[in-house]
Known about the structure:
Blueprint: H1 18-28, H2 37-45, E1 49-51, H3 56-61, E2 62-66, E3 72-76
Helix pairs in contact: 1-2
Amino acid sequence: MKPLAASPVRIARPSHDLRAAGRFWVKGLRLGGEVDEDLARRLVDAGGTRVSARNPYWDRWGITIADPDGYRLVLSSLSWP
Length: 81
């Protein structure tokens, strides 16, 4: 997954620790195609925790990472038309 200048991302939510959240989202997350284990490892190294999805569908089609505040990020390799 390689970020592009035109890759829009908007995250609007409260944070208990802005520095930890920034490290997780900026250093850990990169955007683009397939979800791979290197991405999951970077997110965990940046303060995230790999967790089971609340809906098993997403465990089948991707991975779920909780950020330092406990918010869940689902990364999926599915594509939509």
